[in-house]
Every structure is written in structure tokens, then in C-alpha cells.
Specification:
Shape: globular
Distance between the termini: 23 Å
Structural class: alpha+beta
Number of helices: 14
Radius of gyration: 22 Å
Strand content: 15-25%
Number of domains: 2
Length: about 400
Amino acid sequence: MIKVSVEYYNNKEAVLFISYPNYKTINAKIHVEFKISKSEFLTTLMFTEQANENGWHTYNDLKKRVQYRLGDIEDILDFNDDTIKVKQSSQRVNASGLTERIGVSLGLNVVNQFHGLSEADWSITEDEYFDGKRVKDFDYEISIASDGQKFIQVENKGNVCDDNTKKNSSVSQHYKSIKEKKEEILEREELANIPRHENIYYGTIGVVDGKNKAKVWLIDPIAFNIEWNPKKFKLLSRLYFYAKLFKEIGVHKRIIVPLIERIELLKKSGNISEFDKVRLKDTYKSLKIFISAKNFANINTNEAFGSFYFVKTKEGTKVFLMAVTKEILKLIINQDFNGIINYEYKNGDLDEKATVELSTKLSQTSEEFEMTKVQFVFDEKRKRLFAQYYGTIEYSSSGRIFGIIG
């Protein structure tokens, strides 16, 4: 776990938070030692996008981007003191482009704890359409999630400095940027007679340096009114998330294609309950056909399935694994809406050790198999190469399992 200092930005903001419906939860959490999962932080840092960007939709896209982001994490971030620090000067880190991603990851993981959310709840981006309306129907780019009853809106900023115990000019500018929206939103709220905190909007500024505990400042802007169904939004966000994740790890198209078709039907439906527990069409009943990727991974004897590829690190060529739990795969295939909405993966076994079996066809091998320290052995009977790993692995509450092997 990573220790993070979470505080109200100033006394004025502290007073504003008193009116939040979950104020007791927020206040209790930030007045004890606040911790977030390192795996959850890395998940958001590496994989969460704030826009529906090109070049981030498939297994090959993932391979290319992970290579770069792993390099940034290795070169820039330090987790040795149970928190997040930077190894380089603030000027060099800001030039790397990682600063904003650090702010987003810190901010989202703090807000997730306030509302029991996961990375899967932030997957609907500004370019998606919902009930015939573009999600970016506001003037501002913000992340939106739902806890099933209310909409949670977040604007995350990031800063790397020499001393995060002080609010430098960049932090002050972030604060001003978030609060400047207030007057226009207040006018909209008053005209529409919208109750205060009908929805919740957080501003966060995540700040790290090279010597102190990572810090998140909390800010209270005014929330936008959203005329959508919170439960439907939460379900669709999670279905979007898993459709994207399935593509990236090589889940079979006979699962992905009907899932995308179902998402389109649900977007247009005025009564999503008619699709609850209506199994996706054209999906395999055999659990062995979940993954079609050439490099197959099996975690803890069918607890999770995925794929792997090779990445270059300072220590040489290593295997990078990405997988998803069988439990969420089955919930998605069976379209168990409550199961999907409430899904949270917890596994104490993976906190210690995991058993991972990697396999591939002999015809699919490349020189990278020879370059890695992972020992692959050829099985004459099955005509496949196999390797087994027993060690630590990262996982998030969404059911995403990932990490470097070798």
C-alpha cells in the first residue's frame, strides 16, 4: 500500500465539504493515514485514458504503449518509502509528460475510495454518446462516473515540485482553473432549480516531490446536472471498460463482437432490465476458448486468463502479462447486470504469490523467447512451449491482472 497525504485545499474548501452527503466518509478517511493500493495506482497511471484516443484499442496498441510507460515508471518514480516520490528534478519530470498522469492516478484513486468505485467506472469518455447525447455536452473536459445513484465528476490536476508541503504557483493556478467554473455552473444550477449535491464534483491536485509523502489537495467545485440514469450509466461504463480490456488482452471475437452489439442496444434502450441475464449470443460455452491470443496465460489454475508479450527493460527482455478474471468474463457473457455493477475483485493469494502458466505454439515463437530469462520448455505431446512462474503479480479491483515476469 502507498501512503498519501489527503487534505482540504484550505479552510474555505473544508467548510464547503461539510454539505457533502458523504462528508463523514471523506472526513474520517483523510484524518487517518490514507493509503491507496500501489497496483491500483499503477493501473490508472498506465492504462486509464482521459479521452478515446487513437492507437489504444488493441493488443498491439497496448504492447507499444506499455513499453514506454514502464520505462517512465522505472526512470522517474520511487516507491521505496511506502509512498510515491520522484527520482528526477521537477523540470525533467514535467518535461516527460508524466506529471498529469500522476495527478489523475492519485486523484481518481482517492475519489474511488470515497465512493467504492474502480477503474471500470471511468471508462465512458467525452467522445461517447449516451441516450443520443455526446458525453462532452459541457464546456469542460471532466471525468464522469456513477455509483449507481449519483454521478461523480472529477477534475484531476497534477504537479511535480521540489517541496510538496508548499503550494507553488502551478498548484495555485490549478486551483484557480478548477474554481473558475463555479459561477457559470451556479447560474445553470439556479436556472434549473437543481438541489446542491444532486451530483458530486471533486477537484483534486496531486503533488509529488523527491522527499515527502505524496499529497492530494481536495477542492469543492459545483457539480454539473446530468439528465441520465445513474445505474444505466454505471453498467454501460463497466461494459465499455471490459470490451476495451478484452480487445487488449486477446479475448475471442465471438465474445467481443456480441458484447459491443449489446452495448449499442443498451445505449438506446429505455428499459435495460429486459436485457438483464440475457446471455450474449454466439459465445462459446467452453471455458477454454476465452482467449484467442497466440501467447496464452493462465493464472492460479483458471482463476484468470490472458496473454503476454515481451518488453525491453534495463535488465533485459522480460515478459509482460495482462489478464482478466474468469469470474468477470462469465458475468459479462451471462449479462448479469447486478453482478457486473457490484463486481470487485479481491484476492489475498495474489498479494503474496501467484502461479502463472504461459504457453504458445512452437510456430509462434520469436527471438524474444530466447532473449528472456523465463525458461520455456517444449511439450512434445501438445506441441506447445510452456513456462511457469511463481511470484508476485499486480491486480486491480476491476479484475485486471498484470505485471512483469522474468
